[in-house]
Amino acid sequence: MKTHFTIALFWLGFSLLFAQEQDTRKAYNYSISRTNEPINVDGIADEIAWQHAPKIDHFMNHWPADQGEAEARSEVWTLYDEEYIYVLAKLYDNGERIVQTLRRDNVDGHWNSDNFTVVLDPFNTKQSGFFFGVNAGGAQVEALLNIENGNTNFDENWDNKWFSEVRSYADHWIVEMAIPFKTLRYNSTQTEWGVNFIRGDMERNHYSTWTQFPVAFGGIDINFMGTLQWDAPPKKAEGKVVLIPYLAGSTHRNYEEETGENGYENSADIGLDAKVAVTSSLNLDLTVNPDFSNADVDQQVTNLSRFSIFFPERRNFFLENGDIFSNFGGRQIQPFFSRTIGLNKGQQVPIKYGARLTGNLTPNMRIGVMNVQTGATDEVEPNNYSVLAAHQRVFSRSVVKAIFINRAGQNGDYARNGGLEFNYVHPSGSWNNTIRYHLATNEENLSNNRYYGIDGGYRNRNIILGWAIDVVGKNYETELGFNPRLYNYNAETEETTKQGYTKFNPWFMYRFRPKSESAALNIHGPRTWHIGWLNTDGSLNERRHGIGYDFFFKNTMELRFNRVFFEANLPVPTNLIGKDAALPVGNYQYTDNSIFFISDRRKVINTELSLRHGTFYNGTKSGFTTALNFRTQPWGTFGVNYDYNKVKLAEGYGESDLHLFRLNAEISFSNKMFWTTAIQYNSQAENYNVFSRFQWRYKPMSDLFIVYTDNYGINGLNIKNRQLVFKITYWLNM
């Protein structure tokens, strides 16, 4: 352990010596003007107030090049009044715009369309923020920004009220936004916020930003915002409480149970969500009898590994400021994962009520407190879940974090986790290093219950590299987290044993950036990664060594090559393909080779193709994935995806053809009415699934959902279950 922390301190000192700071918040300042004139958000912007507002008329290249002014001219103005921040953008082009979708909250549809985005850091701490964007068709995306290991991430699952309109003209398009103060969390005594504006120009496949900063960092990076200067601190928003009641009804039939054979079961339900602004920077979320029937269906995958696969959280109650709880641990080792609450083996467990207090307690401290009570099912007893987390900023961008997690069963059983982490981020953002230490315990009070480690990274315009070391004890169990490698399932005895491990993971990437205007490529270069897992006695559990080369073309095409070597010492008999004979304990060495291609995303029809071939444990594995996408701009997108894997193990251990099929259809009747359908077939899970959802946002943040789902077996399409749900929500400001 001393060695690991010595390494961490070495990298920390190294970063202080060699990274340089670039402070765009001092170099770029914009004074926002107050208006007493009513602003009509209509995309016309004919109010006199706009003529007197200061104008930003220079955008800088950011990707694929980060030097010089952007070729496409962009102009931005901002205003504010008692209730809203207003943003006006005039974006010049030749009139040939790409609009991938009209559906809101479609991230790919945003970045792959002509788009405009505003990002805000109201606390001016470079730790968190807000994202508001629209594409040229008017489709909205709002998101929360957070920092993880020095990188700015955004969570588009956050949903809140704001307004925008888009109008198109022959040589430009206009975006007008109104962002309510009550939608934001901010310090009502502060006169400087972080802000940046990002434009995506799909004709040239270029992205530009107001501030100029290195291409190694994403355009929404919190560290490289400019300053939004207020003439007076914005007042605390009026209206402290928002109520969101819902009414839901469903008809359901489970054909695999006796009740299903007798017909459909009908039900009706009501519930309530509430948002309470405790202060302008601290928010209380309450939920009583929540309903998540309108959440997106998980995308089916083929799993040929020994461990469980991570699926993201999609339920709104857990999302706002969710990074306060989730940004702990390393890759595939998460002390807290909210999806473990209210779900058991993929089946819903009723949540009776929940409360979350999140936000800034002080300008430099973010806190999160959550309590959730679940009900009982035939397989699960009622449980109470509590989580407490705090993030204290130190230095200019670094954070000390702490978390405590508790599950309390009604019979006195419990599970607890706690941990401390220090994440150092250099002011330039080029270097980051994290040191962590966590413990887990339950009523058995077992030893070997620690998890500690370090990880970090460095980047510049050509080099990206990183490292991670994690040490996990065999009794570091995270009932409310995600740590799949701890558990090893014996396919012969049908028992699961725990096994601690040490993980090493360095990686390196180099990017060439051709400067010639005639070059077909934007970026190309090699990458390599190495992952090793050791048993607690120092012997090898598993290792992987990969090398690849990537080509990113100016016309948005991508081409990638990969070769990976694997070595695994199976600790227990393992069945990977569901056949009668399990692979025995022993040493296995094998390789995988793959090619991945994406065609021009801007075209009405685009394709994806990957080819794979190699050895696999004591046999071989070959396969391919293909996708065909068709866009009828801007109202519809349709896609067909097919994934095939042929696994042939040594004689006596079986072979299998695994098929995964997905048909997608997305129809946008307007920016407020959408119909999405997915039909999925997974031969490994022996399941056909139909998911169809209609959504009508009849008022801001108020929705009507109609959701239809079907599940079938693969033998003769025998139906398993069927459900039809309607749900209506209403956003009520108090």
Question: What would you say about this model in short?
Answer:
Residues 41-211 form the Carbohydrate-binding domain. This protein has 734 residues and is mainly beta.
Describe this protein's structure:
Residues 1-21 have low confidence and may be disordered. This protein has six helices and 45 strands. It has a domain at 32-229: Immunoglobulin-like. With 734 residues, it is mainly β. A hairpin with a 4-residue loop joins β24 and β25 (414-425). The strands form five sheets. It has a 26-stranded antiparallel β-sheet that branches. It holds the Pfam family DUF5916. Residues 41-211 form the Carbohydrate-binding domain. One of its GO terms (molecular function) is hydrolase activity, hydrolyzing O-glycosyl compounds. Residues 242-347 form the DUF5916 domain.
Treating each run of at least 4 consecutive H or I residues as one helix, how many helices? 6
Which word captures the global form? globular
The low-pLDDT segments are 1-21
Major sheet description: 26 strands, antiparallel
Radius of gyration using CA atoms only: 26 Å
Q: What is the level 1 CATH name of the domain at 32-229?
A: Mainly Beta
Mean pLDDT: 92
CATH fold label of the domain at 32-229: Immunoglobulin-like
Gap from first CA to last CA = 54 Å
**What is the number of strand segments?**
45
Strand content: over 45%
Structural class: mainly beta
CATH architecture of the domain at 32-229: Sandwich
Helix content: under 10%
